[in-house]
Amino acid sequence: MPRFDDIRIAPSDITDEAVYRDRRRWLKALGYGLPLLVAGCGSNGDADAKTAAAPPTGKAFDNVKRPSPYDATDPQTSWRDATSYNNYYEFGTDKDDPAKHSGKFKPQPWSVEIAGHAEVTGTFALEDLVKPTDLVERIYRHRCVEAWSMVIPWVGVPLADVLARFKPTSRAKYVAFTTVARRDEMPGLAYGVLDWPYREGLRIDEAMHPLAMLAVGLYGRELPNQNGAPLRLVVPWKYGFKGAKSIVRIEFTERQPPTSWNMAGPREYGFYSNVNPAVDHPRWSQRTERRIAGDGSSLFGNRVATLPFNGYADQVASLYAGMDLKANY
Amino acid sequence: MRTDAIARTKPFVFLACLAPFLWLAWDVWQQTLGTDPVAQLEHRSGDWALRFLLVTLAVTPLRRLTGVNALVRYRRMLGLFAFFYATLHLTIYLVVDLGGFWSELFVEIVKRPYITVGFTAWLLLVPLALTSTKGMIRRLGRRWQLLHRLVYVCALLGVLHFLWLVKSGEKIAVREPLVYLAIFVVLMLARLPWARWTAALRKA
């Protein structure tokens, strides 16, 4: 049995870009004749484009501290799948829209406004917020509310370390995160799918939990735009939509902040949104999930049981002691 | 159109109807279904089941519009292809998607409105497919037509199935199922006896 202690992708494992592109071209040439037989088939014709996201790009970080005691040992998702199958509605609602339509987005330079109940507030450059010397890698399971999941090596810093520097006061009971909304760089904003800008929030003890992190990269490289460049939240025991992307504002609040999906469908998406197989989405089951990992193209054997708190119950269940998790979904 | 023209074109229509299946099979073979191939298979087989249901429902209005009554001779094949893609869709869900978690099926069918509705639509298609032979048509007589009106219910349930499974239940995500709903409504309205009504109106 192979062990999965260390299955990070070595540069030698990655298909050379030229080989990859050539293979795509060849498949396209063969495959695209057929759909023309039937008029109006075009709507599903871009399965090929979906897989054709760029191979590992972006600046590689050096001095990333690894491994972490929190690392998941499940087989990892491929870089290609993690960067071409995304929910980032500001770039479009299809899974391949973010990779296709985020090219105009400029994640540099970047600054974040820190506001609310803290002794230190103001606007800070990304480099001051997340120091390149403090980076750690965390391999986390990522569970989408749509019942698919991935296993991703994030690069970033514990959220608690960043927040503590601003010295939140005793009135800071919650932390609110706001995503950037640039109409000229994010075509999805033209549609009123959600009430823009995208907002998320955590209770302060959740935010201070060592598992919560602010990520600036994945697979040892800078975050691609479609994954929330340059700075995003990662909360592995909650559904993926809690992880606000391209964060421009962090506010310490006294009251529970409004959050985007909760505003769009309060019965379907709660403020807490902890991964919980016992609480179904009103329209679909959360008891199992389709894992996108290893050879993402395999058809069978992808379904796995969903674990309470996405398998992080030992670390985080105590945060919710005495709470009715069915009422506080 | 002479009737033998229908007979001569039937093999081509058959191949055209099979093309989405061949295309899907090709993508499976070439592994070009993308990151979540199971979802792709489900969506595409489901799309085609719904499309063929609506195409089948379009035969009668088209026949009235063009006056080419022989078009009805394509209808059984189109309807059976709708059943074929619906069965493929259900099979993919059962065997490929739920694989290993079949106990979930009963829970899902009962608890999940969109699955209840989708499964019901498929169940209602079964008797229609079984009674599509010449012998059954003859044997059932008038009752055959009554039974086959179930196809309206199937199409409506199919659209609902699609409408209820989208994520947010609002705005952009429902655009596509709403297009199918609109087509269904138009095809149903086209069945009303407009000519008789306008004639009556003119007389009055």
TrEMBL record, chain A:
Keyword Metal-binding set for record:
yes
Enzymatic class: oxidoreductase
Q: Which residues bind Mo-molybdopterin?
A: 86, 89-90, 144, 179, 227, 232, 243-245
Question: What SUPFAM superfamilies is this protein classified in?
Answer: Oxidoreductase molybdopterin-binding domain
Quick check: keyword Thylakoid in the entry? no
Q: Which InterPro entries match?
A: MsrP (IPR022867), OxRdtase_Mopterin-bd_dom (IPR000572), OxRdtase_Mopterin-bd_sf (IPR036374)
Catalysed reaction equations from the record: L-methionyl-[protein] + a quinone + H2O = L-methionyl-(R)-S-oxide-[protein] + a quinol; L-methionyl-[protein] + a quinone + H2O = L-methionyl-(S)-S-oxide-[protein] + a quinol
Cofactor, how bound (note):
Binds 1 Mo-molybdopterin (Mo-MPT) cofactor per subunit.
Q: Which residue ranges are recorded for the region named Disordered?
A: 46-75
| Gene Ontology molecular function | metal ion binding; molybdopterin cofactor binding; oxidoreductase activity, acting on a sulfur group of donors, quinone or similar compound as acceptor
Q: Which GO terms describe its biological process?
A: protein repair
The coenzyme or cofactor needed here is:
Mo-molybdopterin
What name goes with this protein?
A: Protein-methionine-sulfoxide reductase catalytic subunit MsrP
Q: Which organism is it from?
A: Tahibacter soli
